[in-house]
Amino acid sequence: MKLTILSTSDTHGFVLPTNYVKRDQDLPFSLAKAKTVLDAQKAAAEGPVVTIENGDWLQGSPLAYYVAKISKQPDQLTRLYNEVGYDAGIIGNHEFNYGSDYLRQALKTLTYPTINANITENGQPAFGAPYQLIERSGVKIAILGLTTNYIPHWEAPAHIAGLAFQDVVATAKHYVPLLRQQADVVIVAYHGGFERNLQTGQPTEPLTGENVGYALTQVPGIDALVTGHQHRQLAGLVNGVPITQPGYRGEAIGKITLDLNQTASGYQVTASKAVLVKTGGSIASPTILQSAADLNQTVETWLDQPLAHVEGDMRIQAPFVARVHEVPYIEFIQKVQMASTDTDISGTALFNNEGRGFGETIDMRDVVTNYIYPNTLAVLRLTGADLKAALEQCAEYFSLDADGKLTVTPRFERPKPQHYNYDMYQGIDYTLDIHQPVGSRVTRLLYHGAPVQPTQTYDVAVNQYRAAGGGNFKMFGPDKVIRENQKDMTELIADYLQEHPLIKATADQNFNVLPSM
Hints:
The chain is globular, with a radius of gyration of 24 Å. The protein is an alpha/beta fold and 517 residues long. Strand 9, helix 6 (213-216) and strand 10 (224-226) form a beta-alpha-beta unit. InterPro entries: 5'-Nucleotdase_C (IPR008334), 5'-Nucleotdase_C_sf (IPR036907), 5'-Nucleotdase_CS (IPR006146), 5_nucleotidase/apyrase (IPR006179), Calcineurin-like_PHP (IPR004843), CpdB_N (IPR041827), Metallo-depent_PP-like (IPR029052). GO terms for molecular function: 2',3'-cyclic-nucleotide 2'-phosphodiesterase activity; 3'-nucleotidase activity; metal ion binding; nucleotide binding.
């Protein structure tokens, strides 16, 4: 007998094949296309099938943002996920972005069970059962739900108040032996990724505990491991365990096939295979399209609301260049952050390479497709030494190629793009010289025209993720936060534009990166 395990992960509310940059798109991803592929795989399967939603579904798309912040009716989104036919779902880190109350409200409207074993409240699993037991064609199947326990390093404390995030590997070691006594097959659904090279076992990132997929494959008794979080496309055998990670926004589904032999005591796994099935060339599910049609039209109309006009050019022509030479769009975001926090130093990132800045008219579509995260703001009180250390870490984003030209350091692009971990600052003047060794690249650092002093303190506005030390900025942390603005950055940008209906495109070029391009 063959058991097929199908999964999606990190769909981020992209239920339709669009990123909402413009209307009427048919891009190579979406929950709707994933459903078409899932349905086809189920129909073609030679034996029983289990389908898992692997987390990060509640936040990410403009549609999901509209549901959370404007309509405030999570069932508008969850009913679309209910259409897919999942047997179980788990919780991703981004499920907490709108607060645990909103998450709980959303979970109540799902028709499939959500499982999680390592997020606890008062010593008990906080969101449903720790695992799900299913019987298909006489095969007893256990699914254990786990979520990266690194969430407190990023999330606003108010969003996770009262919750404890237990060690993922320790939790697996506790539950897997118990599940082996109850089931023929044990599946771990983990919203987290891999910390090591899948072939060599060598670390591929700092071993902070954010990702422990490789370590999970070394826990005895796991027959299949479904992963996510890193937005990578992975499938194969790791330490003999079949694993999948199906990318981002429903661009692929994970498929694990287990060969089972019946014995006197039940079924035993004799062979396994893992592959990804791309969804991009598929037709979007008519069921999802029809169910989402009215909501999507409402969202598209909302996105087209004009907010302000631009005098000059705030478009981003080349993302890499925009990280080397300040562009008006980045300076604008800095101005919003400083105005919203009453500071005169601000740090922000160009989060990915899809944002295109602002044209002559700015509407909500421009705002939510450029500033893609539901960040709030925090003000850090930093020493000059802290500030310089942060800039040194940002300077690691750049390297020199064989010809001595500026390029992106590979680890910021592979295995997962991390452009969001390179910040640019406003309110200080600085130079990053990439000719110099790592740790000695800040060759100029001024505040109001005077050198930044190591022991002097400076108030700096950044997003909550960075303020908490997200991205392994160890010079930051909750203990250095002196105040916060709890409004979502998208709302702050919209408010600022309504107060300033005519925006001048300016960039004072307060920083430069050497060698110049």
